[in-house]
Amino acid sequence: MVTVADARAVAETVTDPELPMLTLGELGVLRDVQAEPSGRVVVTITPTYTGCPALQTMRDDLRARLTEAGFAPVEVRTVLTPPWTSDWISESGRRKLAAAGIAPPGPAPRRGSGPIPLALGPTRTAVRCPRCGSPDTEELSRFGPTACKALLRCRSCREPFEHFKEI
Amino acid sequence: MAPQNDTPPRSDMQSQTDTQPDASDNALVALSEEHDEHVRWAFGTGFHDPMAGVDTALPDGVDGNALAAYCLMLGDDALIMSHRLQEWCAHAPELEEEVALANIALDLLGQARLFLTRAGQADGTGRSEDDLAFFRDAGEFRNVRLVEAPRGDFAFAIARLLVFSTWRLALLDRLTASRDPVLAAIAAKGVKEVAYHRDHAALWTVRLGDGTDESHRRMRRALDDVWPYTEELFTAHDIERRMAEEGVGVDPSTLRAEFDAVIGEVLAEATLPRPDADARPGVGGGRDGVHSEELDALLAEMQSVARAHPGATW
């Protein structure tokens, strides 16, 4: 007997290929798991960034893990809307990011009316250093090793670190 | 080594297990077993369909061919701009910048894939993103001329990115209201990404413009070089006008005021004068497939492997 809860429990153990400390559920890209009476399982995911090259690996991993657990057939669907936001990263996900030395995102920017404002301000940030906890940090580059992360530096302990961007 | 279409590469990998006592040591074997059902297209990232599961019905009353032509414009702008940014790999002035430009190129490539996939759905031909990216000739590309101009120096790359992302952000922001739910969804994701691209280009423009005499001089020259391409960005093509009238697309002539305001803010901060160069004669027509010879050279490189080994998988 296939149940949604069983399928969901399995799907939620699948981790992100580029952030292996996080499950897809904690990252907020796992949007839905449905089990049909026929036994078919349909999993819905959404990409973080449009060009995220990890999406296909997520699909393969989800299908493989659910198939191993005895679910068949397994279909993985992609949805583009509503667009993923870093606000969907769970509290446990944020703790795991910080423990891995990646500063978790703050609240995603809220859109006011009118054109999107330019951000020409200083490169000092409100992000705390995940190593020493100092709030005295600065941005080195708004683009880090993956699309979802920026590169920062702590001005207290002088260590560079990654920061999960707010989008 | 050329893949042989009549012999699946997988069997080559499997045959290695005969000589490998412990197959788990072999990454290729492990990969092929893990992805047993998925033979991968050799030149992409392995997506079979970037919109798998997305509802792809066309909005009521919209002509599929016109929508496809519009999607090609939006997709080709992103694809060719992405390629020019990718040319900075191993050439950027510092490692962090190389990573940044590559990330921006990746975002745009992702947008291109979705727009091109949408184009192939809308015109009913079922052409895939790869068919459209790798098997069209220059005359079939619908990108604006700005994105195909040669790589230039770093100041040119920044000036072009500033102009392109300021224009595209204004465009995508309005496209989120499209009657086509697929275009609206692509735009909603794209807005978040391109906002970062624009900030990145703006910060570099300020750093270089308000930097040394040499950086100021070169940033100013780069803006002068880019400026003649801007007129085309705001000149509505018939397809763009029609799609705007039908509530599907955006008339680019409506973007000029926002563009001018943003560029003005950046240039003031960067202590740079606004370029007064007029449109260069002969620059334009990109939306009708009229391109410079530089696009031929770009496509020859971008398409060479796909055309040498059509349909190859690994």
From TrEMBL, chain A:
This is Phenylacetate-CoA oxygenase subunit PaaJ. It holds the Pfam family Zn_ribbon_PaaD. The lineage of its organism: Bacteria, Bacillati, Actinomycetota, Actinomycetes, Streptosporangiales. NCBIfam families: PA_CoA_Oxy4. The gene is paaD. Residues 8-67 form the MIP18 family-like domain. Residues 123-165 form the PaaD zinc beta ribbon domain. SUPFAM superfamilies: Fe-S cluster assembly (FSCA) domain-like. Transmembrane segments: none annotated. InterPro entries: Fe-S_Maturation_MIP18 (IPR052339), FSCA_dom_sf (IPR034904), MIP18-like (IPR002744), PaaD-like (IPR011883), Zn_ribbon_PaaD (IPR056572).
